[in-house]
Amino acid sequence: MIKKFLFILFTTWIFTNSYAEEQKIVYLNVDKIMQQSIAGKSIKKQLENLYNKNLEKFKINDDLLKNKEKKLIAQKNILSQEDFQKELSSLRKEIINFQKEQVKARDDINKLRIGATNKLISQLSPILQEYAKKNSVSLILQKKNIVMGKKEIEITDEILEITNKEIKNIKIN
After folding, report:
1. Total number of domains constituting the chain
2. Helix/strand/coil for 173
3. Is the distance from CB of 102 to CB of 114 less than 8 angstroms?
């Protein structure tokens, strides 16, 4: 009985190991592709340009609000208490609206970044499928989920080269 159990256990172990050895597993640094590919750099540049435009616009609005505040403070003794409170209330509303616009602009840029990243990943997927097919790869893992792996099974540079040939630009909306 024990011999039969050991035989079955040993046989199962041998077949499991031989099956696992047939599988080709590689890993990929997706973050590196996002940062160093032509398309990834294009996304980054477009987002930076949009951010800088917003920054300039908000700096101008911020300066206008500061000037209004200084002007209101200078008129504090000239205006009646009721008029001063109305002006102060109006200025506070403008400041709140300005802050809401800033938050909305940041959120919009984040949405655009996420959308563009998703577009790049969706265009990267067929490249990975083709690579896996050509090279008999069974599994492609993301490098950030790997504790340790042989450098020989990392395919990031190969995929980066293919990506640069096939994906030149991704437009953010």
Report:
1. 1
2. coil
3. no
Domain presence at residue 28:
yes
Sign of torsion over alpha carbons 90, 96, 99, 103: negative
Mean pLDDT, range 19-33, rounded to an integer: 79
Residue 18: inside a domain, yes or no? no
Spatial separation of the C-alpha atoms in residues 31 and 36, rounded to whole Å: 9
Cα–Cα distance between 17 and 24 in angstroms, integer?
13
List the beta strands (DSSP E) in the chain.
Answer: 25-28, 139-142
**Alpha carbon distance 106, 54 (integer Å):** 9
Cα-flanking dihedrals φ and ψ of residue 37, to 5°? Answer: -75, 160
* 82-122 per-position pLDDT tens digit: 888 888 899 899 999 999 999 999 999 999 999 999 999 99
Gyration radius (Cα) of the chain, Å:
29
> Collapsing DSSP states into helix, strand and coil, what is residue 21?
helix
CB hemisphere CA count around 108 (13 angstroms)? 12
Class of residue 18 by CB neighbours under 10 A (exposed 0-12, middle 13-18, buried 19+): exposed
**Closest C-alpha to 90, from 118, 113, 71:** 71
The answer, yes or no, to whether residue 48 has pLDDT greater than 80, is yes
In this structure, is residue 12 part of a structural domain? no
